[in-house]
Design a protein that fits this description.
two-stranded antiparallel sheet; globular; binds zinc ion; 3 helices; 101 residues; alpha+beta
């Protein structure tokens, strides 16, 4: 799961995959104000930059500020979550959606 947030006026992009090598902590990266090193975080950053450009905003910080729902740091934590994700099986090597609560 990847998300964006503004800390100290800078945008960072974090992912739960553990980054390159799988050893990163998203919490530590968040505390340091640095983005995760994986392609998911870079993809989210590129998407936000492109959205900001399309909306005529100066940068991703302006986008996240103008649309606070995109800024994970601006919303209160949820007590519950409902996540759908994809996984694979060893037998069929297929991808299918799994609902996780
Ligand atoms: Zn990732």
């Amino acid at each position: 799961m990847v998300w964006a947030q503004i800390e100290d006026g800078r945008a960072s992009y974090l992912c739960t995959c553990g980054g390159i090598g799988g050893g990163e902590s998203a919490d530590l990266r968040s505390w340091l104000g640095t983005s995760s090193s994986c392609c998911h975080a870079r993809g989210m950053q590129a998407s936000c930059a492109e959205l900001a450009n399309a909306a005529g905003l100066a940068d991703d910080v302006a986008l996240l500020t103008a649309h606070a729902v995109l800024d994970n740091a601006s919303v209160a934590p949820q007590a519950e979550c409902d996540v759908s994700f994809a996984t694979t099986t060893a037998k069929k090597k297929a991808v299918f959606a799994v609902r996780f609560q």
